[in-house]
Design goal:
Elements lengths: L2 E4 L3 E6 L15 E7 L2 E2 L20 E3 L15 E4 L3 E4 L13 E3 L1 E6 L3 E7 L8 E10 L2 E10 L5 E7 L14 E4 L11 E3 L5 E3 L3 E4 L7 E4 L7 E9 L4 E11 L2 E6 L2 E6 L1 E5 L4 E12 L5
Amino acid sequence: MPYVLKNENLQIHIDSPLENYNFSRFDWTGKIAEVKFRNAHLSSVESTDNINEHHFGKGFYNEFGIDSALGFDDTAIGGWFHKIGVGLLKKEDTQYLFSKDYDIIPAEFKTISESNKLIISCKSQAINGYSYELRKEIELHSCGFTINYYLKNTGEKNINTTEYVHNFTAINNDLIGNNYVLRFPFQLKPERFGETVNPELKVAIGPNEVTFNSTPKEPFFFSDLSGSDHVKAEWELTNLEHNIGIRETGSFQTNKVNLWGLTHVISPELFFNIFIKPGESTEWSRNYNIFQLNKNV
């Protein structure tokens, strides 16, 4: 059974580390599978037609090291490397792919449940000079929640990686379309994007907002929305039909903001860069605020 944090406005369903999702991509600590605001769903799923739902993302899943998992390059084929928040993965070839189904030796997990907070810790084995301790706290507020992270380098080598939340979002199960507006606190310059995948031209890029002229049937993707500039880590998604909005604000600045989506889901992503020397640690947080729109907006 999932852990449930709830009050008069919100319900947050969080799977325990070894429950349900068991793939090698997303962090197993604090798998926020479902969020409801006054009975309106705010969370969605990565895929609606998959055979094994526990291999795909949902809700507010996060990931460490999407481009290269910790220690992958230092590991011989047949050896084991770290996926932070998951455990050890077995290396089978020379290229790391986040979508690959790796053999897994799970890390050591502990969970503490409080009335308005869930605390999940993850302790890794020591492999090839790398090891770490991760702690995540998911705390409920009146109209939102905060994810607090603590990551300590307990190994002999530097930890150099990234973390982001995929934010599989849809408001009250409304399909992505002209009811949605996605805003950023910085100027969008498409000529500086890293990659643009907009095959149906249904995604419109404005000065600081993304809108839709109809519901996309094919996946869309935009990388480096800030043009690699360091900007405030924030996005705000509103739905004009259901008069609900959600905003994520990081405690950091970011130089990488991506956007992915499909017919039923939109996923803005704020990346946090991590560099930790042996014996040192770092902390960061992500705050989510959910709000009702003025019906005259």
